[in-house]
Amino acid sequence: MRPGLVAITDLTLCAGPTLHARVAAIAAALPAGALAVQLRARHLGGAALYATAVELRAVTRAVGAALWVNDRLDVALAVEADGVHLPEAGLPVATARAIAPGLAIGVSRHRADLDEEVDLVQLGPIWSTPSKAGMGEPLGSAALTAARPRVAGQLVAVGGVDDPDRVAAAIAAGADAVAAIRAWWCSDDPGAVAAAWWTIIARARE
Fold first, then answer.
1. φ and ψ at 50, to 5 degrees?
2. So where are the chain's domains?
3. Fold exhibited by the domain 5-205
4. Core vs surface per residue 81-92: b (16+ CB within 10 A) or e
5. What's the burial of 161, exposed, middle or buried (CB within 10 Å: 0-12/13-18/19+)?
6. Percent helix, strand, coil in the chain (nearest 5)?
7. DSSP-derived secondary structure for 107-122
8. What is the residue-level pLDDT of the chain in tens, covering all 206 positions?
């Protein structure tokens, strides 16, 4: 199954055993394979990031979720992650493909004029969000519709996806999945959030 929900980590909001418990709660509310966890931890050095990734790989494997490592191809390979997610100014896709031909590759993009052979494109910010401050005006859901014909892999909406109405709007506009941060790590019940959002996505996939 292709993931429909992407949980992007923010270790300043949630880390360690609490993060692991929340990942397990989210996954428990979903069918196997519906969740992908994107490990984003820019502040961590190589050793600390590797240790965090090892722990998260064990958790995601146990609950049937995918693990993507942000930016660090070496760490993604070392922990046998499902994919590496490359920021817009990160390693070129062709280089990553040459180094790790068997690894799924995702990219972050802030424009709709896309023509890249990747497994996943995370497009945003679609709506305003604190994590994307300074990136200019939000793209709006119309950017997903414009990007859809140009994305061969999964199209993921990111930025301001914080309630069921926006999940529905993103999926209706052409997204295959939605990514969020605060919805998972700041919610009182991330499992309930996941279940509600997945219902919207699953209906659209039928």
1. -60, -45
2. 5-205
3. TIM Barrel (3.20.20)
4. bbbbbbeeebbe
5. buried
6. 40, 20, 40
7. EEESSS---B--SEEE
8. 789 999 999 999 999 999 999 999 999 999 999 999 999 998 888 899 999 999 999 999 999 999 999 999 999 999 999 999 999 888 999 999 999 999 999 999 998 767 678 999 999 999 987 765 556 689 999 999 999 999 999 999 999 999 999 999 999 999 999 999 999 999 999 999 999 999 999 999 98
